[in-house]
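Workshop exercise sheet. Pairs work together: one partner reads the sequence aloud, the other fills in the structure field after running the prediction. Swap roles for the next sheet.
Pair: D.N. / O.F.
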Amino acid sequence: MVDALEAVGHDIEAAASGTEGIDAIHQRPFDLVITDLRLPGADGLTVLAAAKEQSPHTEVVVDYRPWIGGNGGRRDEARGLRLHHKAVPDG
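Structure field:
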């Protein structure tokens, strides 16, 4: 994914763990964060919360599909939606 996004001109920063991703989020703003739900160090919902806390309008995609590598379910999906809506008020 990194190579494909860079090939079309996007500035990409990849992280090997959720903790690394959160550190990057605290260093500079991002327009978009793409994360897996299950990560070493900190899970994708923790990354989502950190991104929204740092910049409420940052778009975050959390991949929770079990066949991609995560083990997410409806409970994790609902928690992620609550975190997103809490961070971005209507209007």
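Discussion prompt: The first strand starts at residue 32 and ends at 36. What would you look at next?
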